[in-house]
Amino acid sequence: MTSILVVLTAFGQGVAQPSKVHSSFKPGEVWTDTEGNHINAHGGGILFHDGTYYWFGEHKVEGKNGNKAMVGVSCYSSTDLYNWKNEGVALPVAAEGSGSDIEKGSVIERPKVIYNEKTKKFVMWFHLELKGQGYAAARTAVATSDKPTGPFTFIRSLRPHAGLWPKNATEAHKTVPIVVTDNDPKWEQKVAAGAYLQRDFEGGQMSRDMTLFVDDDGTAYHIASSEENRTLHISKLTDDYLGFTDDYVRIFPGGRNEAPAVFKKDGKYYMITSGLTGWAPNPARSAVSDDMMKGWKELGNPVRGTEDEQKTTFWSQSTFVLPIQGKKDSFIFMGDRWRPQNPIDGRYIWLPITFEEGKPVLRWQDEWKLDTSEKKQTKR
Ligand code: DGJ
After folding, report:
1. At a CB cut-off of 8 Å and minimum separation 6, what does 313 contact?
2. Does the beta carbon of 107 sit less than 6 angstroms from any atom of ligand 1?
3. Ligand 1 close to Cβ of residue 228 (< 6 A)
């Protein structure tokens, strides 16, 4: 169903399309906001607050700087999940030359926002790479706001857990140095064994692809790809969500997991991740545990479909799993179909998660709705 509403706006990436009222999800198609512009919130996450969903994501631009943070973190709002209003830039980059960690030209990825009931603040964490350093900095960063739409105030960036071993570190991790060189034939095994955990012990652990998860008791967790993207670290945040406690664990050492997305169903924690292939898609993975901090078990690729679909996660990479409000056990898988040659043209792959034999499952749908099982399974 489409109705023509606006044809006048432009948004720096060409003239907006006639805006449409959306009444279904169409994964992979251009998804226009209420002004007719392709939604610009990549690697995103969603906060539900006071009856409204807020979608935060990476604001991308055209061309070679497309993946750099030239503008900041976008925010969109919606009450129905189909139609999104552009709320502007929730966290703006700092001016060029300011020397700020979030200076224009840095890399800001995978922003996630949670609400702290005690402090009444909105807290955003994101993966930060410092300007001019490629992906070497591997930091996580925090900002806060009194309103969900911002403006968020940048607080600091850090490499977490400096001088601290994870709770599940062994005596060997702590006492037997692992020597690793760049061309080491046993590089992967040594990294899995903790070579970079040891290397980064004093300065703080690397933190790249990340997500946040708030548990029923209000405890917030920061889950990030660490140790040169080889091992996930799960960390408990402080009560105000603005810092890290000393409590963290390594999971799937050497597992090469990126793009973690966590959700909870029937008291169990589930995680969907990708493998490690840069911007290129790869097979998704899934895992389950009774406890966020221990006992994670792999459940395999959640994708059901053709070989190509399974090998590429429908040509996408996970970013978030959204619990649908008011619908028990209903979750949406949110993924990005990256377009590294023209990042602003990246597409969103939202699919319902079903459960089969205790495992989360994703199946392709060209078009789907929240309330009905109405589907159209034709071409991609
Ligand atoms: C894969 C990550 O999942 C993305 O968020 C991004 O960091 C790219 N790597 C960069 O190559």
Report:
1. 274, 281, 282, 283, 284, 303, 335, 349, 362
2. no
3. no
Mind listing the pLDDT tens digit for each residue in 354-380? Answer: 999 999 999 999 999 997 443 444 333
According to CATH, the topology of domain 37-331 is Tachylectin-2; Chain A (2.115.10)
Does 77 contact ligand 1 (Cβ within 6 A)? no
Establish whether residue 273 lines the binding site of ligand 1, counting it when its CB lies within 6 angstroms of any ligand atom: no
Gap between the Cα atoms of 308 and 301, Å rounded: 13
Angstrom distance (rounded) from CA 190 to CA 202: 19
CA-based nearest residue to 48, from 345, 331, 376: 331
Sheet holding 52-58, edge to edge: 42-49, 52-58, 72-78, 85-92
Ordered by start, the domain boundaries in the chain are 37-331
87-136 pLDDT, tens digit per residue, is 999 999 999 999 999 999 999 999 999 999 999 999 999 999 999 999 99
CA of 279 to the centre of ligand 1 (A): 6
- Is 258 touching ligand 1 by the criterion CB < 6 Å? yes
Residue 99 CA: distances (Å) to CA of 132, 179, 327:
11, 35, 46
The overall pTM is greater than 0.90: yes
What are residue 174's phi and psi, to 5 degrees?
-80, -25
Phi then psi for 309, rounded to 5 degrees?
-65, -40
Atom in ligand 1 nearest the alpha carbon of residue 258 = 3
Distance 170 CA to ligand 1 centre (A): 30
Does the Cβ of 108 fall within 6 Å of ligand 1?
Answer: no
